[in-house]
Write a structure and sequence with these properties.
It comes from Actinacidiphila guanduensis. Keywords: NAD, Oxidoreductase. It holds the Pfam family 2-Hacid_dh_C. InterPro entries: D-isomer_2_OHA_DH_cat_dom, D-isomer_DH_CS1, D-isomer_DH_NAD-bd, D-LDH-like, NAD(P)-bd_dom_sf. Residues 7-322 form the D-isomer specific 2-hydroxyacid dehydrogenase catalytic domain. This protein is α/β, with parallel strands linked by helices. It folds into two domains: 2-99 and 299-328, Rossmann fold, CATH 3.40.50; 101-291, Rossmann fold. The chain contains twelve helices and 13 strands. The strands form two sheets. It has a seven-stranded parallel β-sheet, sandwiched between helices. The chain has a six-stranded mixed β-sheet with strand order 2-1-3-4-5-13. The longest helix is centred in the last third of the chain and has 20 residues, at 300-319. The model has no long low-confidence stretch (mean pLDDT 93).
């Protein structure tokens, strides 16, 4: 089968082509699937999309008219897909149900460490031959408290790293992780976790109950010198409330690998354009804020596993199999 893969990053392409090569042909496009690029998918029974593709009802109808029967998304999240409409059209939709937790946990810790030790500022200075230490004072992680919001596979991996640095562990989740308890984690109410933690890392899924989980009230609970990291879902933090708190001089550092209004911005070169998103522009203006564009899972190993899972999703579709990756099964 020939598969159209859209939104393919340059570093991703050779890994994706290698994964498909033994059994299928794949045509890779750098552009994501949108109203403007939908005609490119005409004639492809299977389309593999990136998380920044717009797969609303009109887009799915256009795909269906063009002959597409399978949408295989190369991500765990699928907020961008109108699943109900895909089911009405009789389309099969699959995703990457599980990805390795280590890249995201390691990246969350990298953000925390970079913020704590002022690494971006230090590197920028030394490139200008400024070797002063003024303004670069960090703090020991050892002996401080790490609050892990969401202790699933990624949160547990993050807790292991924090525990390895000798940090006290606080956790909040609807279910207790035995692995985290073995690390000495104490499960507490969210407000207490926020009040007592020196480092807070977010690893919960986005649901109605977690949308803007950290809004103005809960951000006010945090210590003024806290390190706050979000590699979970963009809408877990209210960005406007976060900007207000930062404007009041609070927080030692904030690391964000996602942003609520990132669509059409992340993954693209906007360096020659005027930034019209005032909230994002203000976030980027704070010297104690580090923003990256969904880089947490961007390792060779993770991308290879995503590509391999996508190929299996195509194979399962052809064989009529339903797996944990299947969101909408093949219609009879």
């Amino acid at each position: 089968m020939e598969v159209l893969a859209t939104g393919v990053q340059r570093d991703e392409r050779p890994l994706l082509e290698a994964a498909f090569a033994p059994r299928h042909q794949v045509r890779c496009l750098e552009t994501a699937l949108s109203a403007d690029t939908l005609p490119l998918a005409a004639g492809y029974e299977a389309v593999s999309t990136s998380a920044d593709s717009v797969l609303d009802a009109p887009a799915l109808e256009a795909l269906s008219r063009g002959g597409t029967r399978l949408v295989a998304q190369r991500s765990t999240g699928y907020n961008n897909i109108d699943l109900a409409h895909a089911e009405r059209l009789g389309m099969t939709v699959a995703r990457v149900a599980r990805s390795a937790p280590y890249p995201v946990a390691e990246f969350a810790w990298s953000l925390a460490a970079a913020l704590n030790r002022r690494l971006v500022r230090a590197a920028s200075r030394t490139r200008d031959f400024d070797f002063r230490l003024d303004g670069l004072l960090g703090r020991d992680f050892h002996g401080r408290t790490a609050g892990v919001i969401g202790t699933g596979r990624i949160g547990t991996a993050f807790a292991r790293i924090a525990g390895g640095f000798g940090m006290r562990l606080l956790g909040w989740d609807i279910a207790v992780s035995p692995q985290c308890q073995e690390l000495g984690m104490e499960y507490v109410e969210l407000d207490r976790l926020l009040r007592e933690s020196d480092l807070v890392s977010l690893h919960v899924p986005l649901m109605p109950s977690t949308h803007h989980l950290l809004g103005a009230r809960r951000l006010a609970e945090l210590k003024d010198d806290v390190l706050l990291v979000n590699t979970g879902r963009s809408a877990l933090i209210d960005p406007a409330a976060l900007v207000d708190a930062l404007g009041d001089g609070r927080f030692a550092g904030v690391g964000l690998d996602l942003y609520e209004e990132e669509e059409g911005v992340f993954f693209y070169d906007k360096s020659l354009e005027v930034m019209t998103d005032d909230t994002l522009a203000r976030l980027l203006a704070f010297s104690n804020v580090l923003v990256t564009s969904r880089q947490a899972s961007w390792t060779a190993e993770a991308v290879q596993e995503i590509a391999a899972t996508t190929v299996r999703n195509v194979d399962d579709y052809l064989a009529g199999r339903i797996t944990e990756c299947t969101l909408i099964p093949t219609s009879p």
